[in-house]
Design goal:
The complex is a heterodimer of chains A (264) and B (220). Chain A is α+β, with helices and mostly antiparallel strands. In chain A, 36% of the residues lie in helices and 22% in strands. The longest helix of chain A has 48 residues. The model of chain B has no long low-confidence stretch (mean pLDDT 83). The chains are: A alpha+beta (264), B mainly alpha (220).
Amino acid sequence: MAETDRNPWRRFLALPNESRTKTIVVAFLVSAVCAALVSSATIILRPIQTANRAAEEQARIERLVVGIPGMAALFEQSGGTLSTVVIDLDSGRAAQDVTPETLDAALADPANWTTLERGEDEAGLGNRPDYAQVFLLRDGEEISLALLPMTGQGYGGRIDAIMALKGDMNTVAGITITRHSETPGLGGRIDEPGWQASFAGTEVRDANGEIRFNVARVGSASVHEVDGITGATRTGNGITGMVRFWLGPQGYGPLISAIRRGEF
Amino acid sequence: MARTAFWSTLTDPLIRQNPVTLQILGICSALAVTTTLGTALTMSISLTVVLTLSAGLISLIRRHIPETIRLIVQIVIVASLVIVIDQVLQAYFAEISRALSVYVGLITTNCLVLGRTEAYARHHAPVPAMIDAFGNGLGYSLVLLVIGFVRELFGKGELFGAQVLPLADAGGWFTPLSLMLLAPSAFFLLGILVWAVRSVWSEQTEAPEQSPAFRPEPAE
């Protein structure tokens, strides 16, 4: 036996690999180093990723608007920009003291979120922000298109989407999924333009004003339904819940009524 | 002498010991991301980087990894590297990162990575371990690129997104084979590739596990 080393690090390294101390310390060190690596990569790269995501969302909005028949010309006319309005979801009016620039800061404050009761939480969110940013395209004074961002819960996690409603606030003009983590090849197909195209022309409410929108499991039977994706029932249910919630009284319902009354 | 050893460590996995066609490792991603050459190339580079770095790191601490927790230690290291790579892709190659979706994350469970660290890096010094890992990464990349090349060329008539074969829709002569863009085509191509490789390098052929049962002539 060699004389004991003074240096505790070397003494530790000399321990037999199978000793309990060494096992625990090695496990701890490896996890600590890896955790530091992962966290620093995430934090350093986050600003770039956020910028990417914002740019991508902008591009998707443009594609969505341009892809709707008759909207490209109007979009050109308005100079290629949409008017951006922050809405107070409870009153359905433009928010007084929150602008698109201060929206992120406002939403960082938990006081600006509303906890949802079980019965009214169709989208499975738990809570919803009090303010939301919507995009409007006007033809003169009339609103001809409203783009409403939505969030729901799919099979693999959160789904973010933007739905475009025509001026009657009932006919869907199009939808784009901005973010999801559904299974590729199954629920992930909500990303495909082909499926998203099937939303166009769907009517959200029936004559009595009831929300009837539904992602059908087998063949859409009515004007309120969209064909589901085979093997992605829960993703479809998530989309149904999301649309129903966000167009309902807890979501953009008040805004939709206000636009219909011509108050916007 | 040492140089030739390094050389064969590096080049063996390209064809003779190719991890995909010989050992049939890591084919999940090989099938999923090869619809275009661009995604195949990114996946190849990501996997090669992860494989090489993890082999180096694990080999560095190989004398101090307790046997009882060695798989967990290896997976933690591999998974951390994968997350870092995924974050880098999301930041600088957002478009490609979206095309690869979950498959970057799945590098963690790619049998190839764990296979190399477990079989080679754990018993060798960092430099040979990294060379071996790099060679295996290249072998994997080679297969991915070959399949990606065929699928993109015949599925879309493009290579790296640039039109190579004039499409019939646009007045050319080429009608895209949409089967090539679906997952089954990758199975077919990989099968054909394995068969081709094993016909040329016949020592790769495995002995049949069972011989056909002896069947006496049925009595009349």
